[in-house]
Amino acid sequence: MTKPSPVLADVQAARERIAGHIHETPVYSSELLDAHTGARVVFKCENLQKAGAFKARGASNAVFSLDDAQAALGVATHSSGNHGAALAMAARRRGITAHVVMPSNAPAVKKAAVVTYGGHVIECEPTLLAREAALAELVAATGAHVVHPYNDPRVIAGQGTVALEILEQVPDLEVIVVPVGGGGLLSGVAVAMKSLRPEVEVIAAEPAGADDAFRSFGLGRLVPQTAPDTIADGLLAGLGELNFALIQRYVDTIVTVTDDSIMAAMRLQWTRLKTVVEPSGAVSFAALLEHPERFRGRRVVSVISGGNLDPDRLPW
Questions:
Q1: End-of-domain residue from the set 151, 179, 213
Q2: Catalytic positions, written as ranges
Q3: Which GO terms describe its biological process (predicted)?
Q4: Considering the domain boundaries, does residue 174 fall inside one?
């Protein structure tokens, strides 16, 4: 059965549903970074969100959308980290169990976060096939309700609440730059933004070493992710089908950035914004550094998607 695509009303309903379960995150700016990029940049700090990433929004919307009978069996997912922690957090708030299948090479700090929130971690080999197989086995054994990290209309609607906050915080924005991996954040933000402010340019930023969204967007068909190689470990997933359909409809363009640009963006955000940003969260600002001509002189919102990383494994 085809999943229904979320619309603006779903995003607005999600905002009401998750109020009190998430933070309305702040926006930061820096005159030094404006001078560095030639743009007027505002950073939407989802690295300061509960569980350290925007994922708290979609996971909370999905968990609190369940009826009591569904919720009683618990929830399950596969995740490289941030979604798993967010789902465990939301499940704990509802008083239910969360099971999270994680690849064996996921950062230790992200596995620890799931456990800290009361989630059960099931390790598997670091391939998508292994993750999906382990999840299917888990669901067969427990009956838990699957909450996909991004290819889920409830998750997409929850992530789209980022855009509703941005429009209130930065009413004069001209461009928004959003990282893309599986496409949950990008598709949700794009639906909300284009529904309310169609003149705002929505740009996705993706690591060059994991560029399936860039290739899919250019070719007009979903291209599978194969052998991704990037320091942005939160953006290794391939695009979801539902996400891609929304991206085709609402996103203006996708650009890629190198790992060197991601590291440069991280350094600037750490030293100038004084805020901890993980590699995946720095990808949007890396786009401004690597493609300055697109943004020069414009009012740009750069979404920092997360701040979860192991301090003993900094990319530099």
A1: 151
A2: 55, 305
A3: D-serine biosynthetic process
A4: yes
Coil vs helix vs strand at 306: strand
Question: What percentage of the chain carries pLDDT values higher than 70?
Answer: 99
Residue finishing a domain among 115, 136, 151: 151
DSSP string, 5-49: PP-HHHHHHHHHHHBTTB----EEE-HHHHHHHTSEEEEEEGGGS
What pLDDT, in 10s, does the model give residues 177-213?
999 999 999 999 999 999 999 999 999 999 999 999 9
pLDDT in tens, 223-256: 998 889 999 988 988 999 999 999 999 999 999 9
Distance CA 295, CA 57 (A): 28
Render 189-227 in DSSP notation, one character per residue.
HHHHHHHH-TTSEEEEEEEGGG-HHHHHHHHTSPPPP-S
Helix ranges (DSSP H) in 80-127: 82-94, 108-116
